TrEMBL record:
The keyword Phosphoprotein appears for this protein: no
Biased composition (Basic residues): 865-875
GO MF entry, a single one: cell-cell adhesion mediator activity
Keyword set, alphabetical order: Cell adhesion, Cell membrane, Disulfide bond, Glycoprotein, Immunoglobulin domain, Membrane, Repeat, Signal, Transmembrane, Transmembrane helix
Pfam family, one: I-set
Cellular localisation: Cell membrane
GO cellular component: axon; plasma membrane
UniProt-listed InterPro entries: FN3_dom (IPR003961), FN3_sf (IPR036116), Ig-like_dom (IPR007110), Ig-like_dom_sf (IPR036179), Ig-like_fold (IPR013783), Ig_I-set (IPR013098), Ig_sub (IPR003599), Ig_sub2 (IPR003598)
Region Disordered: start-end pairs: 709-732, 864-884, 1069-1167
Protein name, UniProt field: Neuronal cell adhesion molecule-like isoform X12
Length: 1167
């Protein structure tokens, strides 16, 4: 029974209505949602203050859902906006989003104004916020002539920036002529208004290039002020002085800031030596978690300002000549923010309900109601509707009175607008749970049978088992609000067919499910402790039982890991055998019997000992203790004595005392305590309401003895619980609930029958009285209808039939989170180079997080390349940043591309709405490798090469860099020649080359950013033009085929002769060569040898930096054989020889005296 304070009839009415509303949630079933009518709901809209880029089309978002799908209309500056009259304005199909096309030169200023979107269907009208469209402006700096500034050493100085006013305001920074930021310090710093302050000037401050820059973030433009020249005179000593404030100039100032915004205060002091600045708050503390001291302590910044930050702040400036302070009086006002935003309401005809709209702010916001976009006082009267300030009360609603209501909360500093519909539905019950589901559960475990239903009015749910004769009821069952049936301790008698029936005044629906209760898996004979000698075998047995309908799996582990991959380990159905045991096999072995529903496990230790050289004394486990006796009984204690068994040549180290609780867990033995092996008596401390039996085990170096026979039963009396549940937590699973969970007490901790839990909660700092409810046989309780993400104090107390447990301590938990309601604003992108960009955003307000902010996600993707030959899109990528970040880097971008980007905040529930998509372009980068590079034609003194443009151009190609050089027979490179070729050229012919010469070629593409990677190729000019004349293909001539056949026959005959001589034991030429030269595998083949040297196919080794040649290029394979022997000789299509050859390997280089250095030289010798 829930204990609630009495708040009067109105509170009771609102509570009753609140329960009605929460009971009519529409399940997120897609099929159901498609069938139900629904008034419009705005799902996405542009921000209230929308600054547009004058270079891009204007897109004003308005998306909505509803059934039927809504139609859309717009107003501009309070008047109907007819988009058909302006051909440059389009509305996206199926959407209310407007697109103003300004690509034809139209000025975006013409579309500035206040826009509002309406989404209509036959059930009502939803409206968007008023969206103010303003064009981003980055005006030019006014021209001025700045005279040089001359200052005496030690004087203070201010360099004024005075940037042009932009929309949004520019970011100010000071740099020199080399675009390097000017160094700042305690003495020299930039103020919030952009001016540069010198507390005292020094000779090193003299320079002529103090330049103030203004960066306009929306258009990514930077403008600079004329350089300021400063000369510091050092012609007399500087007089030291006490501090005087330069900013602020007066002694007392005031500052107003809005709740949730950033408060910045600054104090800049003149003085010599340079003063140190510090801050304090009178009658309060500066919030350490949200406050930071910037600009060398001259600026105090407080993030996410709250009302508690109001008050008087003082800054102090101090040096050795004195100190001075300034007071800043801070007042905090607040634009409206939600306490309880209106929520959609689904009612059945004749039902009651409420919509509340509660907002706070300073000054207090005024609440104004609208219906379908019209002020409620101007709307048609509805007798079922009543307005009570911030609450709409509906009673006896009728079919056809569905509508969308708007709540507007406004004050001097802003407004909030929220839509909430009232949908009147009359729907018979529907069971959404799939039919004939079979639930399987282990005996004595809880079972949960689902029955998800929907209907309007809310259906009542009843459960039946096997037949419809009697409805299920009693303490054995728990009926949940969502229709589920829970059975705490499932027994075989609970198996069967279950029927859930849903009823309302419009109909009835039912569904059948089945429950099967299975027997638990139990290990009957666990493995036992084993001591085995090295090189012997050992067997562990593990026998288990399981439900016959479940498929078991036996798994063995060693020291909680998989068994070694060793054939000595053999696993059978119920045993593990280890043969030829070694010392590394010692450890703990665990057998695990698994089924699809449960498992059981048992472990045993294996000890490996050395085999004794001679027979020794036999050591065994101790004998079984006997003669167990209970004496000196108390309320919670008893004394146990026993007689130890034989030690078996190994002294008893300790006794282990175990107990069985026949009342709660019969047949299961638990460890209670241990006593030294020299004692035979133990004083046992016991728990109430337990039927104890005791047994004793003895332990020596060999292992445990078998258990003793159980003692007589000793029963303790019941009592109130001694402890409360642990691990008490409070958290939300939905945005409007608080789930309180705890670790339940064991039967031993219950201390008596009738165990229950008293669950208590109250909203932290908001409620004085506790709300409580008593539950049994559960470990959680769900509190519904809570505000979103607010702290609660939670307590859980145990009680039984003999009284409550001790007073519990409270823990703090939070109700459920909701998706963030706002997107990060002021998203700005700074492109740093062609592959890296930096994104900045303004943090979301604390109220809009509606939970615990976990961070920000930046989603970005490549939309297209700026090059017309490469425009494919890229996959979306996401970078995640911590919640205290307001900027981050986007790495690995592709150059010369257009990217789109949006930023979201996320909490434990998920992501909030996206920021307005931003687009940015990356500059050019260096291009990729040309797509191909080959030699297409070869002549005596010329070569023609072809190439293709890079696949990744990364910009506009400005040309190609073409280089080439000769390569001699020793792979030495000659003089490198270089040519610049235009970007539209794809081939080039080199003339006046040396004949019969190898060349190496290099080519790379260029953009304005530089050259890309180089692609290489090699080729050889031919020896004689006659060699490329048309010839008959030699491979098709009869004489060539006959010659090859004769050679093959000759080789076969030689092999047969060699085989015959080897069998006769005689020597033959190959054998002689082996004897003369050692290993025949390293001998080359020579014409005057009668033997065949072994051919070695070494790795191909091209020149360093070159690619594997394509068709028509040189191929280096480490062989200097003659033209006839060369396996890589190639011919033209007409059969003529191409001057290609294979380079020499290191091994062949030792035979220069007997072999021609190249096929070209071989041809010269023939000629």
């Amino acid at each position: 029974m829930m204990d609630r304070p009495k708040d009067g009839p109105l509170a009771l009415l609102l509570l009753l209505l609140g329960h009605m509303i929460s009971a009519l949630e529409v399940p997120l079933d897609p099929k159901l949602l498609e069938e139900l009518p629904q008034p419009p709901t705005i799902t996405h809209q542009s921000p209230k203050d929308y600054i547009v880029d004058p270079r891009e089309n204007i897109v004003i978002h308005c998306e909505a859902k509803g059934k039927p799908h809504p139609s859309f209309s717009w107003t501009r500056n309070g008047m109907h906006f007819d988009i058909d009259k302006d051909p440059k304005v389009l509305m996206r199909p199926g959407s209310g989003t407007l697109v103003m096309d300004i690509s034809g030169g139209e000025r975006s200023e013409a579309y500035e104004g206040i826009y509002q979107c309406s989404a209509h269907n036959e059930l009502g009208t939803a409206v968007s916020n008023s969206i103010v469209i303003r064009q981003s402006r980055s005006p030019l700096w006014s021209k001025e002539r700045i005279s040089p500034i001359i200052a005496q050493k030690g004087q203070s100085l201010i360099l004024h920036c005075r940037p042009p006013a932009g929309l949004p305001p520019p970011i100010i920074f000071w740099m020199d002529n080399n675009f390097q930021r000017l160094p700042q310090s305690r003495r020299v710093s930039q103020a919030l208004n952009g001016d540069l302050y010198f507390s005292n000037v020094q000779p090193e401050d003299s320079r002529s290039d103090y330049i103030c820059y203004a960066r306009f973030p929306h258009t990514q433009t930077i403008q600079q002020k004329q350089p300021i020249s400063v000369r510091v005179l050092d012609n007399k000593p500087a007089e030291e002085r006490a501090p005087v404030f330069m900013v602020p100039s007066e002694s007392v100032s005031s500052k107003m800031v809005l709740r949730g915004e950033v408060l910045e205060m600054e104090c800049v002091a003149d003085g010599l030596p340079t003063p140190a600045v510090s801050w304090v708050k009178r009658n309060g503390e500066i919030p350490s978690g949200r406050a930071s001291f910037l600009n060398f302590n001259k600026t105090l910044r407080i993030m996410d300002v709250s009302e508690a930050d109001a008050g008087e702040y003082r800054c102090f400036a101090k040096n050795r000549h004195g100190s001075v302070h300034h007071s800043i009086r801070v007042t905090v006002n607040a634009a409206p923010y939600w306490i309880s935003a209106p929520r959609n309401l689904v009612l059945a005809p004749k039902e009651m309900g409420i919509i509340t709209c509660r907002a706070a702010g300073h000054p207090k916001p005024s609440i104004r109601w609208l219906v379908n976009g019209l002020p409620i006082e101007d709307a048609p009267k509805d007798p079922s509707r009543r307005v009570e300030e911030d609450t709409l009360i509906f009673s006896e609603v009728q079919t056809g009175s569905s509508a969308v209501y708007q709540c507007n909360a406004s004050n001097l500093y802003g407004y909030l607008l929220s839509n909430a519909f009232v949908n009147i539905l009359a729907e018979p019950p529907r069971v959404l749970t799939l039919p004939n589901i079979i639930y399987q559960v282990i005996r004595n475990k809880p079972a949960l049978l689902e029955c998800v239903v929907f209907g309007s009015p809310v259906p009542t749910i009843t459960w039946f088992k096997d037949s419809r004769s009697s409805m299920l009821e009693g303490n054995a069952y728990v009926f949940h609000e969502n229709g589920a049936l829970e059975i705490h301790m499932s027994q075989p008698s609970n198996s069967g067919k279950y029927t859930c029936v849903a009823r309302n005044n419009l109909g009835i629906s039912e569904n059948h499910v089945y429950l099967e209760v299975k027997e638990p898996t139990r290990i009957l004979r666990p493995p036992e402790y084993q001591v085995v000698q090295r090189n012997r075998d050992v067997v562990f047995e593990c026998k288990a039982k399981h439900d016959p309908s479940l498929v078991p799996t036996m798994t063995w582990l060693k020291d909680d890991r998989e068994l070694p991959d060793d054939e000595r380990f053999r696993v059978d159905s119920d045993r593990l055998t280890i043969t030829d045991v070694t010392e590394s096999d010692a450890g703990t072995y665990t057998c695990i019997m698994n089924t699809t529903l449960d498992q059981d496990s048992a472990s045993a230790q294996l000890t490996v000992v050395e085999a004794p050289p001679t027979p020794t004394v036999i050591y065994e486990q101790p004998g079984v203790p006997t003669d167990l006796e209970l004496t000196d009984p108390g309320a919670r204690s008893v004394q146990l004595t026993w007689t130890p068994g034989d030690e078996h040549n190994s002294p008893i180290k300790k006794f282990l005392i175990q107990y069985e609780d026949a009342l709660h867990q019969s047949g299961v033995w638990h460890n209670l305590t241990e006593v030294p092996g020299t004692k035979t008596t133990a004083h046992l401390k016991l728990s109430p309401y337990v039927h104890y039996s005791f047994r004793v085990l003895a332990l020596n170096d060999v292992g445990f003895s078998h258990p003793s026979m159980p003692s007589r039963q000793f029963r303790t009396s019941p009592a109130a619980p001694d402890e409360n549940p642990t691990e008490v937590k409070g958290h939300g699973t939905e945005h409007n609930n608080l789930v309180i969970t705890w670790k339940p007490l064991t039967p031993l901790q219950a201390n008596g029958p009738g165990l229950q839990y008293k669950v208590m909660w109250r909203q932290l700092d908001m409620e004085k009285d506790w709300t409580s409810v008593s539950v049994a046989n559960v470990s959680k309780f769900v509190v519904s209808g809570t505000p979103t993400f607010v702290p609660y104090e939670v307590m859980v107390q145990a009680l039984n039939d003999y009284g409550p447990g001790p007073k519990p301590s409270a823990v703090i938990g939070y109700s459920g989170e909701d998706f963030p309601s706002a997107a990060p604003g002021n998203v700005r992108i700074l492109v740093l180079n062609s592959t890296l960009a930096e994104v900045h955003w303004s943090p979301v307000s604390l109220e809009s997080v509606r939970g615990r902010l976990q961070g920000y996600k930046v989603h970005y993707s490549r939309e297209r390349s700026l090059h017309r030959h490469n425009s494919h899109q890229g996959k979306q990528r996401t970078e995640i940043f911590s919640p205290n970040k307001t900027s981050g880097m986007l790495p690995d971008l592709l150059p010369y591309s257009v990217y789109s980007l949006r930023v979201t905040a996320f909490n434990g529930r998920g992501e909030g709405p996206s920021s307005v998509p931003q687009r940015f372009e990356t500059p050019e980068g260096v291009p990729g490798t040309p797509s191909f590079f080959k030699v297409s034609a070869i002549d005596l003194d010329s070569l023609t090469l072809e190439w293709g443009p890079p696949h990744e151009r990364n910009g506009r190609l400005s040309g190609y860099t073409f280089k080439y050089q000769t390569v001699n027979s020793k792979n030495d490179l000659g003089l490198l020649e270089e040519l610049d070729l235009p970007s539209n050229q794809s081939s080039f012919t080199l003339h006046n080359l040396s004949h019969s010469t190898r060349y190496k070629f290099y080519i790379s593409a260029r953009t304005q950013r530089g050259s890309g990677p180089t692609l290489t190729e090699e080729a050889v000019t031919i020896l004689d033009r006659a060699m490329v004349s048309p010839q008959v293909d030699i491979a098709t001539q009869g004489w060539f085929i006959g010659l090859m056949s004769a050679i093959a026959l000759l080789i076969l005959i030689l092999l047969i002769i060699c085989f015959i001589k080897r069998n006769k034991g005689g020597k033959y030429p190959v054998k002689e060569k082996e004897d003369a030269h050692g290993d025949p595998e390293i001998q080359p083949m020579k014409e005057d040898d009668l033997t065949f040297g072994e051919y070695s196919d070494e790795d191909h080794k091209p020149l360093k930096g070159s690619r594997t040649p394509s068709s028509g290029t040189v191929k280096r394979d480490g062989s200097d054989d003659s033209l006839v022997d060369s396996g890589d000789t190639q011919f033209n299509e007409d059969g003529s020889f191409i001057g290609q050859y294979s380079g020499r390997s290191d091994r062949d280089a030792t035979h220069d005296s007997s072999e021609p250095p190249s096929p070209v030289n071989a041809m010269n010798s023939i000629v």
